[in-house]
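User: Teach me something about this protein's shape.
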Amino acid sequence: MKLKDDKIIDVSSGVNPLGPSGRVKSAIRKAIKKINNGSCVKTEGLERFFESRFRLLPENMLFANSLKELVYLIPHVLNPGRVLIVGPALDMYQDAALSAGSEVLFMNAREEEEFSFDVSRIQKNIENVDLVFLANPNRITGRTISWEAIREAISALPAARPHFVIDESMIEFAGSDVSLHDMITDGGITLLRTTAFFYGMPGLELGCAVSSPEVIDSYKKRKHWEINLLSAEAARTAYKDLTYRKASLQYLQREKNMIVRMLKKIKWLRAYDTDTNIILVKIAKDADEVTQKLRRAGFAIKDCGDLSGLDRSFFGISVMKHEKNLKFIAALNRLYQNV
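Assistant: First, the predicted structure itself:
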């Protein structure tokens, strides 16, 4: 029997399966009472929180209704001739660069190195590059690069180095808030954050860009949006909710350990090490057949055949709710018996 699309479980969303916290839901309900007053959304509360938590000034921040808005804005403002994307990476960075008329180059983490990226490689391949997109953690492999390594690599570059856009969308899953905020003053780095994934709010997302006042001012001159009241209130509450953060990290680590342990028992696939809630898997079977059989079992996977540096034998798994994790592993085990 063919399942309806709304009954199919997406195993690669990357979103915290616990969803928004109770405090966030309560904040949203209160904010709904304000949506008809016609006033502009003020971000002072968020700015004050970022200032106290990360020692950032309001002039270092730009908020948006999604990370994608920011990713597309940046190349249109900075107008880079050549863009280097550290991969494997989402199509979003390439699409944004191409939409601004930039030439796109890729530098991918290598399978033979377990997809651990040596950031010093950038130093040797930076000629004529104007902008670098780097996701840390990587949004496909889940691997992180230490901030010390990134800081050292960027500092070693000549003064006329490219602008680095570092997507920190998944940083909370790695259990860290450590960042490169101390390096934004010279205007050579833009950091990106979002509430979509760790805080479980892809439908009520708030994105944030952090850079020098000069760079942020140039972004603000080209921005074309106003902030959603509900997403602003939800974000302000989410970032303060340390209880939710701790509970999420404990749950995700426990479930990830279980998933990896079970995946290792399946002979026809390999799960790579990860620092987040995303697990990159390589299968030694026909990708179409595995995809179709899993869909009939109620699960949707997306292979990585359209990503630079990977092929159709790779797909991603993200940690889901416990019962869904168990059902998915059981479905994989049944495939192993029959494929």
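Now, about its shape. Residues 66 and 250 are 27 Å apart (CA to CA). The chain has two domains: 5-18+243-338, 22-240. If you'd like, I can walk through any region in more detail.
User: That's plenty for now, thanks!
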